[in-house]
Amino acid sequence: MSEASELLRLQEIDLELMRTKNTAEALPQRQKVAAARAAAKKVAGELTKIVGQRKDLEIELADLDDSKRFFSEKVTEIQDGTYNQDFRSAQDMEYNLATLAKKIEKCDYDTEHLLPRLETVERAEKNARALTEKLEREEAAQVASFKQAMDKITEQVKTLAFERERIVADLPASIVTSYEAARKRFGGVAVETLVGNRPSACRVALQPSSFTDIRRSGAEVTTCPYCKRILVVTNEEA
Ligand SMILES: [Zn+2]
């Protein structure tokens, strides 16, 4: 490979490396993973609230159940005559039984009203858990896809870096130094070729005298008189 071809290839490699880096940074999986995580966090917050509501309802229902059992036991005790309180009269006992019956009725009434609310909350909890699992699967799929894409990119970068190393080792150190300086100054495109009498990057037509000078020197690698990029002059582009 001539110095000119090596320089052009070096430039191609560096531009490809830049593109690859941009591709890696713009991989859509990154955003999708972030979105899935944000959504999962939101669902987790909702789930905590829902579980709290469900537990409160369960406690209320358990309390009602306990109360009902307590009142029912009292009724049984009164009916069996084992109740540890003497009633002054039959009316007194009837009154107590009626009061207990009302209390039991109230427990049943409250329970009936709480059960549909518990069902609603349980359904919401089930949905939130299903959504959490779905988001976890989505995140895992995106993470796997991201890893796959990154592995491919890493492989490309490795291959390019290997070739680059070989070219840099092959080129004279002074050319590599000028190339690196120009690359830094121009943000990538350090080398231009001559297309007719126009350098490919700055596109300023060379003065006939410059053009003749460059041609006459026979040098394949020179400096653009305008932008000071490295100018590659090959016979194919003449
Ligand atoms: Zn130029």
Please provide a written account of the structure:
Helix content is 76%, strand content 5%. It is mainly α. It folds into 2 domains: 143 residues, Helix Hairpins (Orthogonal Bundle); 61 residues, no CATH class. It has a 4-stranded mixed sheet with strand order 2-1-4-3. The radius of gyration is 42 Å and the shape is rod-shaped. The model has no long low-confidence stretch (mean pLDDT 93). Bound molecules: zinc ion. Zinc ion binds next to loops.
Distance between the termini: 19 Å
Bound molecules: zinc ion
Main sheet makeup = 4 strands, mixed
Instruction: Please give the domain count.
Output: 2
Element pattern in H and E: HHHHEEHEE
Q: Which blocks of ≥5 consecutive residues have pLDDT under 50?
A: none
Give average pLDDT, whole number: 93
Q: How much beta, percentage-wise?
A: 5-15%
> Percent helix among the residues?
over 70%
What top-tier CATH class of the largest domain fits best?
A: Mainly Alpha
